[in-house]
Amino acid sequence: MRDGLVAEVGPGLAAAGDAVLEVSGKLVLPGLIDLHAHCFVGSSDFGPRTDDIARATGVTTWVDGGSTGAGTFEGMREWVLSRSRVRMLAFLNISAIGLMYLKIGELNHLAYADVDAAIGAGKDHRDLILGIKVRSQLEVVGDAGLEPLRRAVRAADALGGRVMHMTGRQRFTPVLTLRAGEVWWRRT
Q1: Rounded Cα distance, 59 and 81, in Å
Q2: Who's near 18: CB < 8 A, 6+ residues apart?
Q3: Cα dist. 106→54, 97, 98, 162 in Å?
Q4: Which residues fall within 8 angstroms of residue 94, CB to CB, at 6 or more apart?
Q5: What is the pLDDT of residues 18-62, one digit of tens each?
Q6: Pseudo-torsion of CA 136, 51, 128, 113, nearest 10°?
Q7: Contact 21, 9 (CB under 8 A)
Q8: Residue 34: φ, ψ to 5°
Q9: Longest Cα pair distance anywhere in the chain, in angstroms?
């Protein structure tokens, strides 16, 4: 180890670095990427203390999965991402308020799914935003059905990004096709 980084790996190395660690039987990795975290600590309904968890788990890059939307991303950038010792990227929630209060789904009020605002925030923060996140569970979209997903796709297309799509208990089946490079999972 030299300056906190692995300087060399191999058998019989001279102890010239800051430290030599015995790692026989352990995994030595270049760093893990947590593809779906919620990093806006203290401003959304959940989120870990990312630096503390990263140190203990080997995560070197967090990808926030839609904690913030167009109306709240600047706060996460200022108060979390800019201060983190770990690299952070994000999917911007199509809901302008992000995941601020989960007892009421962020897309139950469809006007929050503001495509123009999402495109604007995506362009303003293109160095950190990978694409658009949308949750399609029944308790999130209410009567809006597939419209939030359609809006997320429009915003992602305008930004040249991807859609991170989460489904779960719902009364409809998403009919939009998953495109190359996009992320989808089902919450049960």
Answers
A1: 15
A2: 1, 2, 3, 4
A3: 28, 7, 6, 20
A4: 69, 107, 113, 114, 115, 118, 132, 133, 134, 148, 151, 152, 155
A5: 667 778 888 878 888 988 888 887 776 676 677 888 888 888 999
A6: 30
A7: no
A8: -90, 105
A9: 66
Are 101 and 140 in contact, with CB atoms under 8 Å apart? no
Chain centroid offset of residue 1 CA: 30
Nearest Cα neighbor of 40 from 85, 94, 98 is 98
Q: Where are the alpha helices (DSSP H) in the chain?
A: 50-57, 73-79, 115-124, 138-141, 147-159
Q: Which candidate, 101, 95, 109, 186, places its Cα nearest to that of 144?
A: 109
Domain boundaries, the chain: 32-186
The Cα–Cα gap between 104 and 33 comes to 30
Superfamily of 32-186 according to CATH? Metal-dependent hydrolases (3.20.20.140)
> Using an 8 Å Cβ cutoff, are 34 and 11 in contact?
no
Which tokens is 32 given? 């893990």
Each residue's pLDDT tens digit, 90-136: 999 999 999 988 788 899 899 999 999 999 999 999 999 999 999 98
CB-based contacts of 140, cutoff 8 Å, min separation 6? 105, 106, 107, 108, 148
- CA-CA distance, 93 to 148, in Å (whole number)? 10
